[in-house]
Amino acid sequence: MTSTPLKKASLFLGSKFISPKSPRLLSPRENKNACSPTQIKLGQNLNLSKNFEENNTIKSKVQIRLNDKSIFEESLIIDSPHKTDLLSYGPNKYDLLYSLGRGSFGTVIKGKYKGSTVALKILKLDKFSNGINETNARDLVHKNVIRILDIIVSEKYALVVMEYYKNSRNLQCVLDDLSFVFNKQTTIYFSRDIACGLKYCHENGVLHLDIKPKNLLVCNNICKICDFGNSVKELVGTQTFKYHGTVAYTAPEILKGKEPSAKSDIYSLGILIWQMMTRKCPYELLDNEVVIYKVVKFNFRPPLDLVTEDGLSKLCRLCWDEKPTNRPSAAQACDFLNNL
Questions:
Q1: In angstroms, rounded to a whole number, what is the distance separating the alpha carbons of residues 107 and 201?
Q2: Do 250 and 102 share a domain, yes or no?
Q3: DSSP symbol at 142
Q4: Do residue 194 and residue 289 come from a single domain?
Q5: Which residues are catalytic?
Q6: Which of these three, 104, 129, 163, is where a domain ends?
Q7: E strands of the chain, at which residues?
Q8: Band of residue 19 on the pLDDT scale cut at 50, 70, 90
């Protein structure tokens, strides 16, 4: 499911459903299937010899990099001169050697910063940037939120230094791994982690606004919210909010061009819980334009008849209610899950 500019949505929804404030773009780099597994799993080493055989261009670039002794280290030392290189030229010099993954808002590599192993997100700054939205989460410290340790900025790039967990995987990779037993208790456990993380974020005035499996890390069986590249401060940035999320998890009020709220995150939580219950991608056979039209105009949601009607199904219905005021708060979702 590719991302689609929401300006185009007005052509088939009409002014009644999409306002002039509708976001300009939705994840321009998303894969066709919005839930497709990431190509590089977190903590996974790249097979350089395979890259050599498959792509002569990559081969020549990597061979040049072999002259740099730092590649024999487990992780890139981020202090100068590497920090200067990253701030000037971005990740292209190191992405093959230390890459942990790529997302809508940047490339993540493994590094060592001030003596500690970290995950380093490298963001390219340009006139179309939302800004460095990760600053919204800089002071958040919670067991269900990936901690941001530092943010370093130049004119061209920003480096977001985050805590690193060995062998962690994003939740989409876990869902795609059929050897991983994902039962009802696992769904409840991870859902509670995410709801508790959102509760903490919302209590501190931060709206994530891009809750989806690829933005959640499973670290030692604890689910943590990461990637605040689409986040806003609730009392500051909602009026100028430019959305770059993923359609399948997007609340209808955002699709209509209205300002987001904490309840927009709760809608995404409901879709996510459904995905954990079924291990299916929401709306995987539909194009983004069709999803927008159905969700906004006909209150369309993923089919709950695929699963047994129980407490989790009830919570899904509550979370993805058309009216934000009818949805539970993150704190209420936590209490609900604690009682299952």
A1: 24
A2: no
A3: B
A4: yes
A5: 210
A6: 163
A7: 76-77, 99-103, 106-113, 116-124, 148-153, 157-163, 169-170, 206-207, 216-219, 222-225, 232-233
A8: very low
Within 8 A by CB and 6+ apart from 276, the residues are: 171, 175, 182, 186, 187, 190, 191
Residue 96 domain-assigned (yes or no): yes
pLDDT in tens, 171-207: 999 999 999 999 999 999 999 999 999 999 999 999 9
Query: Within this chain, do residues 178 and 253 fall inside the same structural domain, yes or no?
Result: yes
Q: What angle do CA 73, 228, 174 make, to 5 degrees?
A: 65
* Amino acid in position 135: T
* Cα Rg, the chain, nearest whole Å: 20
**What's the average model confidence in pLDDT over 282-287?**
95
Domain that holds residue 290: 6-20+168-338
Is the domain of 295 the same as that of 219?
yes
At 70 the pLDDT is 44
DSSP one-letter code for 36: P
Last residue of a domain, one of 129, 163, 197: 163
323 and 197, same structural domain?
Answer: yes
CA–CA dist 53, 44 (Å, integer): 19
Q: Are strands 222-225 and 216-219 parallel, antiparallel or unpaired?
A: antiparallel
| Residue 241 DSSP code | -
184 shares a domain with 159:
no
What is the per-residue pLDDT across 288-303, written as a single tens digit (0 to 9) for each? 999 999 999 999 999 9
